[in-house]
Amino acid sequence: MIRIKFSKDKITIGSAFEYEDVLAYILLKSLPELFNGEIKLSGKIISGSDFNPTLNRLGLDLEAEQKKDKETGKVQNYICNISNKSPVHIIKSNLLSLIEELHSSCYLLFDFTVYLCSECFSHMILNPETKMYTCASCEKSQKKPNVEFSIKTKGIPPRPTTKQKGVPKSENQKLANKIKFCQVMMENSPEVKQMLLDELTPDFIDEIPIKLKLLELVNNYHINNLILPPKELMKNSKMFRFLTIREGILERILSVDDNSFENTVQFKI
User: Does 152 lie in the same domain as 48?
Assistant: First the structure.
């Protein structure tokens, strides 16, 4: 699920897992073209394959470490931790390249915030001593800039569970918790709004009005058939699950202010 609120000057987004990479990409693309300040990046990158060659090729001072199974010693995945106490300083173009190259094979659980000067739209940097933000270009100072571009993502992907603690949650409560996985804020403009709609709701473009305040999208996957791989792979349960083909229907439910629309797509993955 994803929920997008449009106010006069800001767009506020809350999403469930697996929207975080496209939201980080749109956020960066929404920054002014001339923005050249360094972004303080923290968070985590997780993948089932080694992505160190990509980090090295982009000249990033980062390293993915192997996480091995305690019993078998086999590599389960590769994780790159970027502490918020020691963030990586990276320019916009490099971060865009990182997302473009890794989004199809990695979970990109990023945190970063960019404040822009309201006068010249250059990068504003926090001075720890004065606790004021100062523009890198015109040197204007503010306690907290008004123009904020930020993304905050939880560091651990959600895991399915059958355990129920306490009072059972309603569907609305479950959805409200899901959209806390990734929180985004960016400046509102016709170009940014169109970019969001083109990326997230291309199949509903004709139904979405020019003016809107709230957009919510829910994706429900209904798997009705499994095509199993050859029996000789049964001994390798991980590969057996990976090679199993799933057939079903994706039900997409869009709510725009007081209106609701539905669309279904058949899938085979």
Answer: yes
Instruction: Report yes or no on 173 lying in a domain.
Output: no
Are 65 and 78 in contact by the 8 Å Cβ rule? The answer is yes
Segments in the chain below pLDDT 50: none
Domain of 238 in residue numbering reads as 214-269
pLDDT by residue (tens digit) across 192-242?
A: 999 999 999 999 999 999 999 999 999 999 999 998 888 776 666 777 777
In a domain, 167, yes or no: no
